[in-house]
Amino acid sequence: MNVRRSAAVLAAAVVIGAAAPAVAADSSPSASPSQAFPAELYGGTDPTYDGVWRQSLALLAQDTVGVRPAKGAVDWLVGQQCADGAFAPYRAEPASDCGPKNLVDTNSTAAAVQALAALGGHDAATGKAVTWLKSVQNKDGGWGYTAGGASDTNSTSVVIGALAAVGEKPDGVVKGGQSPYDALLKLALPCEGDGAGAFAFQPDKKGALVANADATAAGVVGVLGKGLVVTPGKAASAPTCADARTPEQAAANGAAHLTQALAKDGHLMSALPGAEDQPDYGNTADAVVALAARSGADAAQKPLRWLEQNSAKWAQQSGPAACAQLILAAHAAGADPRDFGGADLVKQLNATGPAPQQAATDKQEEKKDDDSPFGVWWYVGIFLVVGIGIGFLLSGRKKGPQA
């Protein structure tokens, strides 16, 4: 799930009546020389539509690989929150109260919750955000991109991830007698016909469900009760499609659909308007996460290998959200993001924002040394004693045996 996904963003533009179309992360305009964005923000492109989203993904990815993000970057994200707990995609003047121009949404809010919950120490902010998310839950149990918008698979799934991140049980968050899982099951396609087992983004104008690869990847993770960061699930047999009466079966159906879609080339195709025979790197990364979450790391190896071999240019051109997505995909499938097809994704991500703090692993090593019962001077003494002993030995060798 990312801000360049076609269905969610285009639908959001229609819902909120935006005059300008949503911009894809891999085609967003570069900042003009006269336009300066906050130094604490990851990436140098216009953050109007994706500032909070890409910041949240960047912080999550860094935390996942043991990198401590810059304090300013975290503070910037916290400062984007409105008084009611919600987040807009970007607030150029966070010191001012949120108004009609700050169009808050569930996706930005839920992503920020997941990032801040992972980093820890932000219970007040995440608590307010989750309270807002609950207040805008639809009667079918799901969420739309904006408050009051029709429920969609992507938004409902990212909110499920936010609930899980703060220790809430998604099936216990109910509106009108319906949980988020109930909403997702209504968006799952049957096992017969086109798109068997997939998830739709939303019903079309005629109420029909049309398979959507990005929504399917999001839906699989959502019905499993997981968020943007996923560890490899238990190895499972190849999923088969059956009547989706439970979240677990819906996840199996979605995984089976993705496996079939990836079988030929190892990647998904872009559904963006005007894209012809163009691979969709972001959705393929999402599919890796979904397959690993449902069926274990082995199930995601084919698309993972394709990404390792083909995603370098996309990651370099598309900025922090793309690097973060690939890091999260590598993490989900048990790969090394610091050697991803020869690329160091962590280094690339770090370079798009403020310099991170010392890696958590280094801090742990320092603490381990400090916690020694003898302390650093004990080691200094040992080396001095060893040095004296070596000195005696060398001295004896120079003098030789006495006559």
List the keywords.
48% helix, two-stranded antiparallel ribbon, 2 domains, mainly alpha, 403 residues, disordered N terminus, Glycosyltransferase, 16 helices
Radius of gyration: 25 Å
For the largest beta sheet, what order do the strands appear in spatially? Answer: 1-2
Write down the domain tally.
2
Overall morphology: globular
How much helix, percentage-wise, in residues? 40-55%
The averaged pLDDT comes out at: 85
Q: How much strand?
A: under 5%
What is the CATH topology assignment of the largest domain? Glycosyltransferase
Largest sheet: 2 strands, antiparallel
Got a strand count?
Answer: 2
The second-level CATH architecture of the largest domain is Alpha/alpha barrel
In the CATH hierarchy, what is the class of the largest domain? Mainly Alpha
The SSE order reads HHHHHHHHHEEHHHHHHH
Class of secondary structure makeup: mainly alpha
Low-pLDDT segments, ≥5 res: 2-34, 360-403
Straight-line distance between termini: 85 Å
Number of helix segments?
A: 16
Quaternary structure of the protein: single chain
